[in-house]
Amino acid sequence: LQMLPFFWKQLWNICTKISSPIARSYMYKLAINKNLSNNPLLKLIISLCYYKTNYFEFCISNFKDLIKQYDNNAYLYFLLSLSYLHYAQNKRTTNKHEKYIYMKKYFNLYKIKRNYECPIEVIYNEGRLYQYLGIYNEAWNKYQEVYDKIDSVSYLNKETKTKIKSSTIYNMHLILIKNR
Predict the structure, then answer these.
(1) DSSP letters along the chain, please?
(2) Angle of helix 56-69 relative to helix 74-88, nearest 10 degrees?
(3) Rounded-to-integer distance, Cα 110 and Cα 74, Å
(4) Structure confidence by residue, pLDDT tens digits, 50-109
(5) CA distance 164 to 172
(6) What's the first-to-final CA gap in the chain, in angstroms?
(7) CA 22 distance to own-chain centroid
(8) What separation in angstroms does the CA of 139 have from each of 16, 21, 90, 97, 111?
(9) Could you give the CA distance from residue 126 to residue 168 in angstroms, rounded to a whole number?
(10) Which pLDDT tens digit goes with each residue over 125-149?
């Protein structure tokens, strides 16, 4: 799990392919088998399958188990906060406010753990969170902060800076369209 940032896209692609009904039922059978579900990487894949198929309550419990083992991994906190966000917006969910509070709690833990390594990523993701929640003024401020700081960041290569900058501009454009 320490190498999660490096193979994140490949792992997400695997989970997207696994989310077919037949493969999903096979993964659930794997999750029930205690011998296999103790493997952290398999547990992460199963959690992402739950996330992809909107079984957020199982996803949340698996991410919490993983966080007990890998407390220093900021991505797990980010995934847990996203799971709470989508779980709160589910029609069947009761105590939605409680789920939003947990989402904010785990997002703040993600910010604390990730801010030392890549603060521009944290600001950008916070802007995405505010945009998703419809708090466009805060989202705009975060995107503006990313746009202003991205050129002075030394730990990212030029290609990554260009991608972040274009995504930021695109999201700001969506906010302008939404607020006409």
Answers:
(1) -TTTTTTHHHHHHHHHHHTSHHHHHHHHHHHH-HHHHTSHHHHHHHHHHHHHTT-HHHHHHHHHHHHHH-TT-HHHHHHHHHHHHHHHTSTT-S-HHHHHHHHHHHHHHHHHHHTTT-HHHHHHHHHHHHHHHT-HHHHHHHHHHHHHHGGG-SSS-HHHHHHHHHHHHHHHHHHHHHT-
(2) 160
(3) 5
(4) 777 777 888 888 889 889 988 888 888 998 999 999 889 888 888 889 999 999 999 999
(5) 12
(6) 44
(7) 26
(8) 28, 36, 23, 21, 16
(9) 12
(10) 999 999 999 999 999 999 999 999 9
Residue 136 backbone dihedrals phi, psi, to 5 degrees: -70, -30
Contacts of 74 (CB under 8 A, 6+ apart): 110, 113, 114, 117
Residue with tokens 């454009």: 173
Residues in the chain, total: 180
Of 135, 70, 64, whose CA–CA distance to 106 is shortest?
64
Closest CA to 3 of 75, 51, 88: 75
Q: How many Cβ atoms from other residues are within 10 Å of residue 179's Cβ?
A: 9
